[in-house]
Amino acid sequence: MDKLNYAVLEKSGYDGYILKDAPVKVLQFGEGNFLRAFVDYWFDMSNEKAGWNGKVALVQPIAQGLTKLINEQEGLYTLYLRGSENGEKINRKRVISVCDACYNPYEDWEAIKEIAKSADLEYVASNTTEAGIVYDPESTFDQVPPTSFPAKLTVLLYERFKAGQKGIVVLSCELIDNNGKELQKVVNQHIDDWKLGDDFKKWINEENLFCSTLVDRIVPGRIRDPKEVAEIEAENGYSDPLLDVGEVFGVWYIEGPQWLEDKLPFKKSGLNVHVVPEVAPYKKRKVRILNGAHTGFVLGAYLAGEDIVRDCMHDDVIHGFMNKMLYDEVIPVLPLDKADCDAFAAAVTDRFNNPFVDHQLMSISLNSTSKWKARNMPSFLEYIEKFGKLPQALTMSLAAYIAFYSSNIQRLEADGLVCVRPAGNEYKVQDDEWVLEFYYENKDADDAALVKAVLSNEKMWDTDLTKIEGLYDTVLADLTLIRKEGAKAAYASVL
Fold first, then answer.
1. Helix, strand, or coil here: 325?
2. How far is CA 420 from the centre of its chain?
3. DSSP assigned state of 404
């Protein structure tokens, strides 16, 4: 079957939106599944909805990548957005035509420099992994190209500066705090080290805008089932090795001044992309609600006999427990509009109910000690401070964590702690070595001693939780209920 390109797409009878020719307005570092299902999707939609009339030039960030394949397909690829919206199963197909071409900087560095100097260029977007925004002293100005992403960007912006062009907007999507600010900091460090001059440094910091952003869309990527791939190819009338899959939910928060919202094409397009004064509160919302929901209910749900997140959304007790935790205990302590948080939490149910993703509870359980501390502990402590009492669901969640890590411990292996679920099957707890050793060392302790040892473990929680009034007794009572009547009954007891 013919591989996707413009001629093959036309023969296939595809009748969706396509834009073949437009000026390159975005230089994007990264050509992987996430950026193609997220950033490129938003810009592609803007071409259709707002007449943005722009293209994205992709840069392969490392020596190996997708450049050859992307160029063979003339930048085209098929994107499926799948999931649940308001309880309805969604499977949307769109051929993305916003990508102009892809460049390998280790072969096409001069061509990338020419794009950087173009008057049409308005944005740089990036997702070069968490390790991408780091200062690399081994990267030098005269390397072709410099090794690190920030060093590459510094050279390209210097070329733009020398060409007398206006500054651009940098949209950093790496999964680190203050990603835009951190990138700007490293660029400035290279300017100093390479002695590129005060004028260039002033231009960088006054004429360019480095935006920290928060991205939120789960992107499973390519379809791995050969049978499903064959069915899709037969239906589409072409093969597409670049086919991408993302969840239907997606939101992008971009930190910047108010004028940026009018400059970007997303607001005009009616898309779920927002310019905000700070992204930190929205990151807190995502971590506390979305990630905190996962960590908060899955351990008890697994002990109750569930295996997949979606099935938990169809269980009234487990779903009700999650909702109580989110709406009654997490959202009331968040520094954002309550209605906005409620809407985000409602979307969580749809996201967890995705009919296309079998999200295993055991995969979410990995490293639950540090996850509970980062995702759930802040809500737990802030609730106590604000309301002067223990949050019932979060406290039960802490007891479920202890139950999961200590359910009939069998042995400690190199890759995990082997426990037995009430249903009878063995499962493996995976966490830091010292955490697993702690639970194994306490496997013969009674629950009263175990709860005291866990709550007072300052290495786990950075504080002695037994000092919180009533917590020890409540967690012990909750754990006893889980052991005797089961996790589902324990969850039901707080509803």
1. helix
2. 32
3. H
